[in-house]
Amino acid sequence: MSVKSYRAAIREALEHEMQRDPDVVLIGQDLAGGAGGGGEDDAWGGPMAVTKGLVGKFGRERVLDTPVSEAASIGAAVGAAAAGLRPVAELMFCDFIGVCCDQILNQAAKYRYTFGGQDQVPLTIRTTIGAGQQLGSQHSQALYPLFSYFPGLKVVVPATAYDAKGLLATAIRDNDPVIFCEHRLLYRLREDVPDESYTIPFGEARIVEEGGDVTVVALSRMVHVAAEAVRALREDGIDCDLIDPRTTTPLDTDTIFDSVEATGRLVIVDEAGPRCGTASDIAAIVAEEMFNALRAPIRRVTPPYAPVPAAPELERSYVPDASRIIAAVRSVMER
Amino acid sequence: MNEGITPLLMPRWGVDMTEGKVVRWLVGEGAAVHANTELVEVESEKAVAPVEAGAESVLRRRIAPEGVMVPVGGLLGVLAPNGVADADIEAFVQAFAAPKQSVAAMPTQDETVTALGQSLRLLSFGAGDPPLLLAHGFGGDRRGWSLVQSELARQRRVISVDLPGHGDSSKTIASASPEFFRDILLALMDALGLARVHLVGHSWGGVLAMAVAEQAPQRVASLTLIGTAGQETPVEANYIRDFLDAARRAEVKTVLQRLFADPAMVSREMVEQVLRFKRIEAADDALRKIAVMSHEASRRPDPAAAPSVPTQIIAGREDRICPLGENFTPPQGVVLHLLDRVGHMPHLEAPAKVASLINAHVSAASAP
Amino acid sequence: MTELSTPYAPSREGLRGAYRTMRRIRCFEERLHAEFAAGRVPSSVHLYAGQEASAAAICAHLGAQDYLHNTHRAHGPAIARGADLIAITKEIYLRAGGLCQGKGGSPHLHDARLRLIGANGGVGSGAALACGSALAIRHRQENGVAVALLGDGACNQGVVSESFNLASVWKLPVVFAIENNGYAEATATSYAIAGDNLAARGPAFGMPSTRVDGADYFAVHEAAGVAIECARSGGGPSLVEIMAPRFYGHYEGDAQKYRAPGEVAELRRTRDCLTRLRQRMIDEYQFSTAEIDAMDAEIGVDIDRAFAEAAAAPPPDPALLMRDIYADRSGL
Fold it and tell me: How many CB atoms lie within 10 A of CB C31?
């Protein structure tokens, strides 16, 4: 056990899985950071420095730098997975899904189903999400709801270093395509993480706090923002259950239902947008299944229905903060 | 005179924290700071995090150098507006009283020792030899003693160890046999230079403690068995299997509830801790091997019918895992304490009672 | 017997097999055309008639370790790769017992055991998937190749150019076999292909490249042989552009009014790969007309049986709707 960053925990999972299974290969831009220049090898170790050091351990045959060609490289990863490898492809920003949608949403997601179950596609796509770095509208989105729309994909949104390591190991060993969404603002977050290899099953939410007055469901970085709100509310005598689903497909509805059954109040905090997003999805499921348990309308705390702006002042008002969560919780407590 | 002077103290993050390490200062002396300016990075056993100023002021002094351990409540630095004179700050620092040692802040040491090639993590509390050595049960770890450890440490040193395959010790075990674990405990005593200890073992740890007492009675000043009376105690047939196979939170919770007379004792944190441990593959592998070997061992006749060291047994009347049975009579010379409304986890279900029984037993055994 | 100088000259036995394959494809597609016109085919189909030499010649070089990535004009290559004719027909009819259990349909004919990979809805993605197959082959040191069949239309997809580049950068054992039938749906290559020459794109990506007449089985056999051997021996990817006429519309029901009057009739008269192959087998390989006619008759029986079984097959089990969405259902 030692204190590790979210970034280091992800790197450790990659390393363990590459040691464990020779069919695990990494595919992405600048992973070996990069190939072909006259200078230092492994200078970058990936655009997010997550894969630093791996090319030295596993060689260029297993850490494959790609041209700037998301469609071809993600497509190749799908083909390699269907042919029996366990590729881990890196899509630098989830926003870039625009140039490789067909590979993910049509090829990876539907390969097994379309061909009548003859194959499996054990592919992991690591991608990054989230606002907060003034990167603007095309480098800051939290697009995981888009992936969850498609049956055939599994979607992971880890909020902590411990969860990131265990869930990535599960993703790589899983026999289906998994989209693993890393929030860039969490890379430096540090906590105790076992040095040994471990896995965390998909579809099991983490109960971050137990309170009993209000159920707060939050995802990815919003778990930490919600935790701040929950602490402040506790000082005012409002005790919240805080639930982090950890995976949006599969979604652990049981844990959410159990909590809502007891509290009768639900606030969902999501960095994805307010339309067709995860918050809307969870709200719809709870409204349908648990209507009689609800004592107040469900509240969603999400960004506005707008692209992500770059200026810090605008971006700060885009991303949900603790005060908005506190206000939402208070509003459901009034009912 | 001290108006406007605010001490910057080592925070306490969680009940386990007694001290923290100053990793690095983030702000220089003389810097104006806001309430949420991060001043210094501190490392506890569980996390590295910054300490914030808390109010608008100026960082006048950095007292604790980088890299040193500072007890909880110890002085890290001094904040005061520029109007406060240097002499006043100096006087404040001189007059600052070091935090008084509480039971929780007694000298503790979390250390790693190598025995028989296995890395063992242990926690020492208090002072005074021969110490108490605490051996946890199957699937447990040193943290399971947290409710009794402080109380026991009032009288003497208390050492709790993570056995191989458990807690923060080596997960890859050299052997799964009870003899190996018996020898681990003896090798640990050697490594720590301990001629004699008072041994306490819970459940499987109790079986191991008993084996140590048989093998080397001269090194065991007293023996306390919790939730077991030795190898012949029947273990509820499905418990070990169910514990091993429980993969998800709800399953683990249900299994753990069988350990307690009151299922409400099973907290979310306890479930999370067990899950985190069980999910480490090497740990799961070790547990499965131990389970097989213990199962085989339990079919042998009990050689410890008449222990040669002062022995007591503490058990819950509602223990469903290792029930002693209506007709159980302890071997001659062994005292049995059956606790009401307690299951298989007396040290968690009735910690005050268990601590006082151990303290009394140790005192009696230590009397000339 | 004629001596041919290249190492890729087909043997007499090879020709017998190729002719059977091509005739089987032609008969199958003609029958399907008639069945469709009679309203008995439940989905959209794209016929391969006219292009048979391409699939037959490529598959003549492929072994069990090799991958063939198909296009939506899928029936011919599936037959050439050796997929079960009855299972193919049942899949086109969307019945139980189809290659994909009735969940894929005509464009997605797929047989994992034969490493025959079904086509992509948005054309061109097969080029990228084939790079992945090739990567796996190389990783496992299987001495195999991946062939990506692509239409001329698909070559205008960005992913295809990306895949040309990626395959070349990674020196993958891939062959990009472009079946240029002159039309992307209804739009002619003369309009949609800048430069009107897809083979010219190969050298731009550092790949050997060639263009051959798809009506000439021997030419395709040789070009495919060179490219596949190059990939198999570690020489990296190549591109082969096969100029293959399309005898029917883009899909069945296409009135083809965008084609010049008499165009198809002229193609059938002058550029029919089957007629040409038959003639050369008789002229240069001492096959008798009776021998070839006997092969034709035998194939007709197989096809009748496949269509009869498909027409009589039950629909898929309703439970299949929710089956095989995931391989691991844990937590779902």
Answer: 16
